[in-house]
Amino acid sequence: MEILNYTKAHKDFRKKVREFLKKEVIPFADLWEKDKIVPREIWQKMGQAGFLSPTVPKKYGGPGLDLLYSIIIDEELAKTEQYGLFAPLHSDIIVPYIITYGNEEQKKKYLPGCVSGDIITAVAMTEPGAGSDLAGMTATAVENGDEIIINGSKTFISNGIHCDLVVLAAKDPAVENPHAAMSLYLVEDGTPGFSKGNKLNKMGMCSQDTAELFFTKCTIPKTNLLGEKGKGFYMLMAKLQQERLICSVMAVAAAEHMLEKTISFCKNNPVSGKPKSKSQVNQFTIAELATDIKIGRNFVNKLIADHMEGKNVIIETSMAKYWTSDMAKHVADKCLDLHGRFATLERCSLLRNWRDIRVMTIFAGTNEIMKGIIAKSMGL
Ligand SMILES: Cc1cc2nc3c(=O)[nH]c(=O)nc-3n(C[C@H](O)[C@H](O)[C@H](O)COP(=O)(O)OP(=O)(O)OC[C@H]3O[C@@H](n4cnc5c(N)ncnc54)[C@H](O)[C@@H]3O)c2cc1C
Fold first, then answer.
1. Which residue among 61, 87, 119 closes a domain?
2. CATH of the domain at 12
3. Minimal CA–CA distance to 10: which of 73, 80, 84?
4. Does residue 3 belong to any structural domain of this protein?
5. Of 148, 89, 150, 154, residue with least CA distance to 121
6. Which domain range does residue 150 map to?
7. What atom in ligand 1 is closest to the CA of residue 158?
8. Ligand 1 pocket, mutate which of 95, 132, 168 (most atoms under 8 A from CB)
């Protein structure tokens, strides 16, 4: 029995996503990698096609679909090597903050644009001096009458260049407890005192725009507080289950894709007069990778089902995030070996996969942080 119940509508949707990527994304991906950014227009095309934030309720301009539709988009992006078009972060990690914590006015104002692609979102937590240790952040938000004044800087912010709306974490300096001091704010592009720094050029996910953001006496209306004041840290924590799950979904899909490509390569490239796939040593490597991937796939599918049923699987998603990203890294490495010298060529897309998926062990909470969470849950 399948763990996930994909209906005909889901399957048709997957076909549409594939067709869209084939026509609108894949032919341009190399150019975007060279430019080190995807164009804004592709976000709007994604939106027009119905591939952004499919879970946004109809009331707020979305199609009101279930999370499986989002999962399909995320998987297809990974299976076509499109890590630069970072829609999963927008659709499944940031927009849900607005869906869950936004008030009626905020939802009406922002969600339709998040669905159409006219509003690209970013979430800004990391700072030059605060990565894993979020409580160590120093950006401040101080109330002044009907306004909030923000000072500080954020770094490594995905969609940092294109973003129209930032979900920003900042602290009230008057509150001593670092967790209780943190709140989330909605900051629009163009707000005086908000500026974007240079694009950060990375080893992988080159076309995914990543930037520094600066806030200097950046003044927003008090109504741009997202959710309750002082609850920012807890709101971030509450959304981690889905964030880790999405990261795991992409890791498994990436591993499946890399192995598929490698099997085809081994079948079609000879060594000592016979296809590489006929050599026992290569067969054993491929068999081991296929087993790892199957384990990851079943685990992640079960977690998707549990998550969609509203179960608390935060520990299990932490396990999945660390295990699947390590697994994908291992698969990438072995597939590279199986490709031999060809994989060292810039034009070999496997090389790009190898670089792109490397970051998965670092973002969405480092794998060591995941293990710390698991150990703590075991009372260690
Ligand atoms: C491509 C990319 C996109 C990103 N996008 C965003 C974004 O959109 N928004 C955003 O806010 N941030 C983003 N980040 C930042 C990302 O969330 C951080 O890189 C991540 O949280 C890790 O922080 P760090 O890099 O400072 O590493 P550190 O926290 O300095 O960790 C370095 C090493 O120390 C280990 N370590 C740290 N603390 C502990 C501990 N307590 N116990 C055990 N080991 C520990 C880590 O596991 C790791 O091995 C992005 C990063 C990248 C690379």
1. 119
2. 1.10.540.10
3. 73
4. no
5. 89
6. 123-231
7. 8
8. 132
CA of 129 to the centre of ligand 1 (A): 11
In this structure, are 157 and 213 located in the same domain? Answer: yes
CA 117, CA 46: separation in Å to the nearest integer? 7
* pLDDT at residue 271, rounded to an integer: 86
The answer on 195 and 91 residing in a single domain is: no
Residue of the nearest CA to atom 14 in ligand 1? Answer: 156
Do 336 and 297 sit in the same domain of this protein?
Answer: yes
The reported pLDDT for the residue numbered 2 is 85
Q: Are residues 367 and 243 in the same domain?
A: yes
Q: Do 209 and 37 form a contact (C-beta atoms < 8 A)?
A: yes
The pLDDT of residue 349 is 87
Q: Which of 70, 103, 119 is the last residue of a domain?
A: 119
Q: Name the closest-CA residue to atom 37, ligand 1.
A: 132
Residue 240 CA: distances (Å) to CA of 104, 178, 252, 374: 23, 19, 18, 14
Ligand 1 centroid, distance to 362 Cα (angstroms): 6
Q: What residues contact 255, with CB distance under 8 A and at least 6 apart?
A: 289, 292, 293, 296, 324, 327, 328, 331, 332
User: Is 212 among the residues known to form the active site?
Assistant: no
* CA 371 to ligand 1 centroid distance, Å: 14
Atom of ligand 1 nearest to the CA of 126: 11
Number of domains in the chain: 3
Angle (CA) 6 7 11, round 5°: 75
Task: Out of 75, 81, 127, 243, pick the active-site residue.
Answer: 243
Query: Token match 């990436």: residue?
Result: 254
Ligand 1 pocket residues where CB is under 6 Å? 122-126, 131-132, 156-158, 202, 205, 210, 359, 362-363, 366, 368-369, 372
Does 107 map to a domain?
A: yes
Mean pLDDT by 10 residues, the chain (380 residues): 92 98 96 95 97 98 97 97 95 98 98 98 97 94 97 98 98 95 98 96 95 98 98 94 97 98 95 93 97 98 98 97 98 96 90 95 96 97
Centroid of ligand 1 to alpha carbon of 162 (angstroms) = 22
Ligand 1 centre from 328 Cα, in Å? 19
**243 plus 373 within the same structural domain:** yes
